[in-house]
């Protein structure tokens, strides 16, 4: 549903939201393959908030030189 990965040098940050059907959504942030945060949400409004927060973080990181992975 939502997958964004950024890279700067050898470092990678990932932001993921996966639909898990009746179980809700899994929201996860990773850095260099390690899970920094992971939570399960069942309320769509909280998922929308998580997307907004991820987009803010991605904007901040892009401003500091991080680029979409693979570019």
Description:
The longest helix is centred in the last third of the chain and has 20 residues, at 44-63. The two termini are 21 Å apart. A hairpin with a 5-residue loop joins strand 2 and strand 3 (25-31). The mean pLDDT is 97. The protein has a 5-stranded antiparallel β-sheet with strand order 4-3-2-1-5, covered by helices on one side. The protein has one domain. The protein is elongated, with a radius of gyration of 13 Å. With 71 residues, it is of the alpha+beta class. It has one helix at 44-63, and strands at 2-8, 11-19, 25-31, 34-41, 67-68.
How would the global form be characterised? Answer: elongated
Order of helices and strands: EEEEHE
Strand order of the largest sheet: 4-3-2-1-5
Our Rg estimate from Cα atoms comes to 13 Å
The total count of helices amounts to 1
Distance between the termini: 21 Å
Distinctive features:
71 residues, alpha+beta, 5-stranded antiparallel sheet, 1 helix, 46% strand, elongated
List the helices and strands and how they pair.
Blueprint: E1 2-8, E2 11-19, E3 25-31, E4 34-41, H1 44-63, E5 67-68
Antiparallel strand pairs: 1-2, 1-5, 2-3, 3-4
